[in-house]
Design goal:
Blueprint: H1 18-24, E1 29-30, H2 31-38, E2 42-45, E3 48-51, H3 52-57, E4 63-64, H4 67-77
Antiparallel strand pairs: 1-4, 2-3
Helix pairs in contact: 1-4
């Protein structure tokens, strides 16, 4: 599991004009309406890209009351292509068996 925190004023992931068209869309709008209108738009992410349609298809049917709701839905449903190192935490010890575990050191 990962969490993406994005301030609504920062349109970090919504490139190629996607954020602007979401803002300009008439609300309320359903997930299906958003997919139909913008599903072919590409989101460029740090580790690849995916379409708005693929992202929103991960969600249950929902009605967005305003652009902020729609943006946060997109932010919350992007894949792990949006995170740097999957499973990384600078606060928790590395889980046993993790591919990111450091090499064992013998004293």
């Amino acid at each position: 599991m990962f969490i993406i925190i994005v301030h609504p004023e920062l349109h970090v992931m919504l490139l190629n004009g996607t954020g602007e068209v979401i803002d300009d869309h008439e609300y309320p709008a359903t997930t299906e309406e958003m997919i139909e209108a913008y599903g072919d738009r590409t989101l460029e992410l740090p580790n690849g890209s995916e379409t708005v349609g693929d992202v929103l298809a991960r969600l249950e049917t929902e009605t967005f009351e305003n652009p902020e709701d729609a943006r946060f839905a997109v932010y919350s449903a992007v894949s792990d292509k949006a995170v740097g190192r999957v499973g990384y935490s600078d606060r928790d010890p590395t889980p046993v068996g993790s591919p990111y575990a450091p090499d064992a050191v013998s004293f």
